[in-house]
């Protein structure tokens, strides 16, 4: 199961990403929300040492790069582009956003 969304649209003007799945789950995730949820090694190190990954509110998504079937790399306007987001993880974020 790939968990790939039926719909993944980068809104260039706002820097947000709109995602939708065939079961009706759908949300627009802001650049800041995605940046704060980054799970790259650097961000995970910050969390492990007790810190928080606090994205500036104005941070925007500047590129989405598919990584095979199961994930997407997200590049941010603050130059951070190490985050690879499995679709299944983004799905969890969307469910949190709409809960
Ligand atoms: Zn990161």
Automatic annotation (TrEMBL):
Domain of life the protein comes from: Bacteria
Any one Pfam family match given in the protein's UniProt record, by short name: GBBH-like_N
Keywords: Iron, Metal-binding
Domain Gamma-butyrobetaine hydroxylase-like N-terminal: 11-91
Name listed for the protein in its UniProt record: DUF971 domain-containing protein
UniProt KW Iron keyword: yes
Coiled coil regions in record: none
Record-annotated membrane-spanning stretches: none
């Amino acid at each position: 199961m790939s968990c790939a969304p039926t719909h993944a649209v980068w809104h260039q003007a706002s820097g947000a990403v709109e995602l939708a799945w065939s079961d009706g789950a759908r949300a627009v995730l802001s650049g800041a929300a995605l940046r704060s949820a980054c799970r790259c090694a650097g961000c995970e190190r910050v969390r492990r040492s007790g810190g928080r990954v606090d994205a500036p509110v104005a941070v925007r998504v500047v590129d989405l790069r598919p990584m095979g079937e199961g994930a997407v790399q997200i590049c941010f306007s603050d130059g951070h582009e190490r985050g690879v987001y499995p679709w299944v993880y983004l799905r969890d974020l969307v469910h949190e956003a709409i809960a």
